[in-house]
Amino acid sequence: MTYDILFLRVKPGSTFDKTMQDRNSAYDPDAEPDPVNLTGDQRAAWDRLTRQVAREVGPITSEEYLYSLTLWRDGPAGHLQLDFAGDSASIEIPYRYSGQDALPIMAEAYSLARIIEDEAGLEGYDLEVDQPTRTGDVHVAAAKLGGVSHWAHDHLTR
Known about the structure:
Layout: E1 2-8, H1 16-25, H2 40-56, E2 61-64, E3 69-75, E4 78-84, E5 88-94, H3 102-120, E6 123-126, E7 131-132, H4 138-156
Antiparallel strand pairs: 1-5, 1-6, 2-3, 3-4, 4-5, 6-7
């Protein structure tokens, strides 16, 4: 189980919610996922994004897989993962940061979110606290991550 932030390419005149509804209505749970097939612009956005994250956030590791390009950030604040598929992306943060330990990793996640938005043209939305990443409050997100992590530790690890 992870804390998830989702990114979608929202067409002009549409909204994040409408774009997500359209994607969800087209989803076939029995279909094999399509392999990632980035356009030249999407590949260039990925390259800019990884360079910018390494410069502004810190060292990263990245790998290309059949269904996405993946970036990992393991730093002093903690661990997060970004999966990028061109017109969508997601950040996943494990629920292991309780209380105040959640703020540094969430600050990194929101910094990464702004880079994704700027370099790839995707719109980010923090599903866990129902707020856009561009204007959302990182402290609200950190409180949610820290609270759920604390609860999970207390109730699921005994």
